[in-house]
Amino acid sequence: MSRIASTLSALESAGRKALIPFITAGDPDLSVTVPLMHALVESGVDIIELGVPFSDPMADGPTIQRSSERALVKKVSLRNVIQVVAEFRKTDARTPVVLMGYANPIEAMGVDAFADAASKAGADGVLVVDYPPEESHDFAAKVRAVGLDVIFLIAPTSTEKRIRAVGEIGSGYIYYVSLKGVTGAGHLDVSEVSRRIPAIREAVGMPVGVGFGIRDGASAKALSAVADGVVIGSRIIEEIENSPADQVIPRVKALVGSIRQAMDSQEVTA
Amino acid sequence: MGKQDLPAEVSASAYNYPDALGHFGPYGGVFVAETLIAALDELREAYDSLKDDPAFRAEYAYELKHYVGRPSPVYHARRLSEHCGGAQIYLKREDLNHTGAHKINNVIGQAMVAKHMGKPRVIAETGAGQHGVATATIAARLGMECVVYMGSEDVKRQAANVYRMKLLGATVVPVECGSKTLKDALNEAMRDWVTNVANTFYIIGTVAGPHPYPMMVRDFQKIIGEECLWQMPEMIQRQPDAVVACVGGGSNAMGIFYPYIPYPNVRLIGVEAGGHGVATGQHSASLTAGRPGVLHGNRTYLLQDENGQIIETHSVSAGLDYPGVGPEHAWLKDTGRAEYVTINDDEALAAFHRMCRTEGIIPALESSHAVAYAMKLAADMPKDAAILVNLSGRGDKDMHTVAEKSGIQF
Ligand SMILES: Cc1ncc(COP(=O)(O)O)c(C=O)c1O
Description:
Helix content of chain A is 50%, strand content 14%. Chain A is α/β, with parallel strands linked by helices.
């Protein structure tokens, strides 16, 4: 079983939900990323989505765009991000890491070279935002062959047929995008999401994480009542952006810790 | 001209691209986040049902004739040809269209699709502002809300076109992210679309983007070449030896190339912006100096660094300043059916001035790249050879740039 699958099934047995943060590697600086990842684990996260910066992040809102730009100013490359994973793995053999980004940096490196380097570094999965299932058969086969999970997005507008197709080609978990729009956008309709998730989980036969628009403990808790995990990106990146350099780690820890606490609390929230 | 009128070797041609998923060989396709898939499916279905619909065709033809002023003439540039001392140069006069460029052919078509889909709001990206002006024009004509995304650098460089769009009732949104130019405006327009897809139609300005855009934009631009197919025989009793067009995203070039693809004796030559020279790295020659990759929803040749980040481009003409190129051009290059060359800023400017002085036509700086290459080519060809150049636009919008280069201030 992959590290992602075993993590998620252990959580399920314990009756807990996965907390999955997204950060961009190299934001604000490559030297901060590994300590930040360890800090996230200490605050109680279960899987880390590590963003690979790209010059044209078409599916991202302004917060993640700026994060990508800050990393690119420092010339952070896909190879650097893979090195970050290797460094993190030296002292954490347990927490799954998913590389998340766009197709072009991977194609520039070469899919075979990427798959080989990512698996050797100890990455567990990869989510390529602009590779929908139709365009990723070759990629998915190569990446799966080295033991990485291939994670796909499902949107509120995805048809049943597409959801089934994703179930066939994807593995690890499915990332359900909870709103129409880009990352970090507007408000999220928890009841709408709750209505869709059971059927999606049924159709894909794997755990469903929900993301886009989750900003605090209350929304995380509400969604974790129906999903297997919640993904939080823009809110964490805002915290990084707004903290002085020496405060980044303690402030992200405090934020993520409070979300974890809310998710695990027995209280019923709206 | 119908298929039955084509010479035998021509009608036997098997060129039939893209495939059902939008692929031109290994290029094109749909490389977008899942959040955009439903919108693209909806668009593809709507376009499939409209494209051969006689009422839709008639409406499109009516607009082209009465609003745009088509057919645009083919003109024999005698004095320019004489100056070059070789082949005869003919100009396809897209500069005479309403709004001053070929862009309007495509915008009318897409706006009509939007209307049929019941979308009251259109959005567009623009670099130089020509596509933005064309979109604002049609939105006014059809009574639609219009929002145009434009890199904040371009907003500064193209103040007159920004004002034109506002006069026409459009909202111009300056884009502050990334390099603050055309590619970032396209990203931002996609983000708007994904957020407002229920009431919004995204009018892309060139043969780029995810399927069905490269195909649909080509279909709306191919009127250029279709007219040439009967205009050239009318003028010289045969088809030209070469067809030359500038390539930014590639829409005016696809428009004039596409109907000529089945004519094996007609050379198709695309001219990319060489900027300060391809060797300097400051250019926009994606096909000449780029590598295949994925950007803006399709696979094509891209200007990128060794890590796969898209790099900033340069051209004296804002309309050619784009790091990618339509996927069908990538395929025509790889298959050898079309050739791609470059013309530097200086050569384009020289051709611009030569055209002004010999023909009394002020060409767009984009089109001046095609003219410059045709002039070089003509010099090496016999006097009875014929070169057809797509004069994609007029140069009114470029007065400031050209004056500045000549050290003149208004
Ligand atoms: C007059 C003119 N020609 C050419 C272009 C380049 O676009 P394309 O390559 O899509 O024809 C532009 C773009 O703004 C233009 O305004």
